[in-house]
Design a protein that fits this description.
The chain contains 13 helices and five strands.
């Protein structure tokens, strides 16, 4: 596995540096002066995702868009504009949510990928602030802003395969995304850099599966960001549908996720729970996504039950 390098950031990468503050459920930093679109996304995130059941595909896709603070990164701005203008990508997000609805799963729409996008950029920028270099810098001699494009693309496209099927959706994402990345990156990169970016994005996409073994910091960031979409309201559908298995209960036990710079490690993740069942979510999902990745050793996770009493999640359980 390629180790993340720890060196000084290159001159000119200032806009990509991390800033102080914590993230909301939608992956956006408090006090950023969010736009109406971001505020709507935050509301949809708290509600568990958009309701696609009473809309035509055209109506749903018309509302699908993603936003994130670009910090002056023109390449990232261009890529996000290209994604928001691409009806095929937005239709994948719509169909991913349709698949989730069919299975009674939590949100996998454009709201989910926006949450992952914002969390991933936050993680990458906190690591950059601690002089932890991504593969785009340490191995390709490119820049931090190129790593942000890789992370953004991986975050926004990692679940495209959910539009086909839940099982092995990471593999389906690969062959869907591979052909779409070329036009999405037109005008941003030329060869051979374009192929390098595409390859690293595809590595991040396949690396988000349970045993994905990401080799790069960028892929590890996408993998962990995907697991961190667990704040209050994000996994409510299984419980509301009467599913009381440990996965549903542990997801419902998570109230809030805060991401900030740590004292001992570059990244501190604090998870507030209303019930100790949330430990399963933290250990089985999040810890599994961190272990064995280039992020291991750079992230500390603190999970605590808020208050003196625990919320009752399970009315009864029968077999």
């Amino acid at each position: 596995m390629a180790k993340a390098s720890k060196k000084s950031a290159k001159k000119g990468d200032g806009p990509s540096a991390g800033t102080k503050g914590e993230l909301t459920a939608a992956g956006m930093k408090k006090g950023d002066g969010t736009s109406p679109e971001l505020e709507r996304a935050a509301s949809e995130a708290r509600d568990g995702g958009p309701d696609t059941s009473r809309r035509t595909p055209k109506e749903a896709v018309a509302e699908a868009s993603v936003h994130a603070p670009t910090r002056g990164n023109r390449k990232l701005e261009q890529f996000l504009d290209a994604v928001n203008d691409d009806e095929r990508v937005r239709a994948w997000w719509y169909m991913a949510q349709v698949t989730s609805n069919r299975l009674g799963m939590s949100d996998h729409s454009w709201v989910h990928v926006q949450v992952v996008l914002n969390i991933a950029l936050r993680l990458l920028r906190l690591l950059a602030k601690a002089d932890i270099e991504p593969a785009m810098v340490s191995q390709h001699q490119m820049r931090q802003r190129d790593a942000e494009v890789v992370v953004a693309a991986g975050a926004l496209l990692h679940d495209a395969g959910m539009s086909i099927h839940r099982a092995d959706h990471e593999d389906y994402s690969l062959f869907l995304v591979a052909d779409r990345l070329d036009p999405l990156l037109d005008g941003i990169y030329k060869e051979p850099e374009k192929t390098v970016v595409i390859s690293e994005v595809l590595h991040a996409v396949i690396g988000h599966r349970r045993r994905g073994e990401p080799y790069t910091l960028e892929a590890g960031v996408v993998r962990v960001a995907d697991a961190l979409d667990m704040a209050q309201g994000r996994s409510r559908l299984p419980i509301e549908g009467g599913q009381y298995g440990i996965h549903a209960l542990s997801a419902a036990a998570i109230d809030e996720v805060r991401i900030d710079a740590g004292a001992d490690r570059p990244v501190k993740i604090e998870i507030e729970m209303n019930n100790s069942a949330g430990v399963f979510q933290v250990d089985d999902l999040l810890a599994t996504k961190i272990r064995g990745t280039p992020l291991e050793g750079y992230v500390e996770v603190i999970a605590e039950v808020a208050g003196e009493t625990e919320k009752r999640l399970l009315p009864s359980f029968r077999i």
